[in-house]
Amino acid sequence: MQEHINQANQSLLHVYNRFPVIWERGDGCYLYDVNGKKYLDFAAGIAVFALGYNNSYYNNALKAQIDKIIHTSNNYYSHPANLAAKRLTALTGLERVFFTNSGTEAVEGAIKAARKYAYLKDGHSRHEIIAMNRSFHGRTMGALSVTGTESYRTPFEPLIGLIKFADLNDFASVLSLVSKDTCAIILETVQAEGGIYPAEQEFLKKIRALCDEKDILLILDEIQCGVGRTGTMFAYEQYGIKPDILTCAKALGGGFPVGAFLLSERVAANSLKPGDHGSTYGGNPLGAAAINAVLDLFAENNVIDQVRQSALYLEQNLDSLAAENDTIVSRRGMGLLQGLECRGPVGEIILRALDKGLVLINAGPNVIRFVPPLIISKAQIDEMMAILKSVI
Ligand SMILES: *Cc1c(COP(=O)(O)O)cnc(C)c1O
User: What are the phi and psi torsion angles at 277 (to 5°)?
Assistant: First the structure.
């Protein structure tokens, strides 16, 4: 394996420090490397493989679509995209959807919709967006502009202008940045990459009220926390509020690269028009078939109910580990998006876990992230805890 890794390192652009493993295949919640070693997966390809690996219903749905048609362009309609659009709008209560190929593109579209909405309203294009420190929204220039880690942004400036950063769960910090030119507030309902910080109930309610009062658009980025992971289809459902624009990706395609942004009818009708936005591949029949297969499986297998039960069990286990272990500062999270903050860097713990057949990832330097496939069982949580305890 090491020889192949050394060879790959000579040609791949070095923007990732990859783990020393080459995956061959996956099955359910397990991965197998090219030597046949089996690993329990609590990373799910970064919260993507919601339904586990090698699901026969999902695989067959994609194979069937490949045999019909893979791509048409958005100049035409297709049944898979029509159906996926109808289902996603019904699930969210947001009436309009645009399909993308990734999360970052969904954020780009959301930003454009917000800027266009304000432009049509005020007749000028100097509109500000308030984003959160510690947030992560993607790597393209627009999404990077609203990402709250300065070191990610600085080398690539000038980014899109007029972005201000507040602190999640500090309403006063948001309020102090609002001006007559604020067009949107963007935040992750649960900050994921930044260290697993859920938005607080009071905070999000106040943000919603502020947006309503000032006609500011609330963009919720649920690319990581959406699609069942927190125990509801979308995390915002647990806050009793609705965004004006929602971004979605990762688990949405169950492994196939897709994304989407959804808008309320009011925002859609007063923002992006023909010619304002587009994508060659977004919503292509194969990607849309993947979304439909994921949504079929959610309905048929009561995935959300399963998440609630297993999440409770995972939380209890992580809490008792945190209580008995000095290395751990706290547990944070919602549903099957959990983090254990440790007193120091967690890289060594993750490497040792990998060696023992457990795949974990971090969320910032000091936080171990737990984002297993949503079909994870209690027995598999026990299996994970045993390895975690032994390496921590
Ligand atoms: C992963 C992620 C993105 C970016 O998605 P890509 O598909 O990698 O472009 C944006 N926002 C959040 C919250 C994410 O977790």
Answer: -155, 160
Say if strands 128-132 and 337-342 run parallel, antiparallel, or are unpaired: unpaired
Atom of ligand 1 nearest to the CA of 139: 9
Please state, in angstroms and rounded to a whole number, the distance separating the CA atoms of residues 290 and 295. 9
Cα–chain center distance at 41: 17
Which amino acid, one-letter code, is at 88? L
**Predicted TM-score of the model (pTM):** 0.98
CB 208 near ligand 1, within 6 Å: no
Q: What is the pLDDT of residues 172-199, one digit of tens each?
A: 999 999 999 999 999 999 999 999 999 9
d(CA 376, CA 378): 7
Instruction: Give SS3 for 53.
Output: strand
pLDDT tens digit sequence for 25-35: 999 999 999 99
Are the C-beta atoms of 369 and 46 separated by less than 8 Å?
no
For the CA of 46, the closest atom of ligand 1 is 1
Q: How far is the CA of 44 from the centre of ligand 1 (A)?
A: 14
Q: How far is the CA of 247 from the centre of ligand 1 (A)?
A: 9
Of all protein residues, the one whose alpha carbon is nearest to atom 6 of ligand 1 is 103
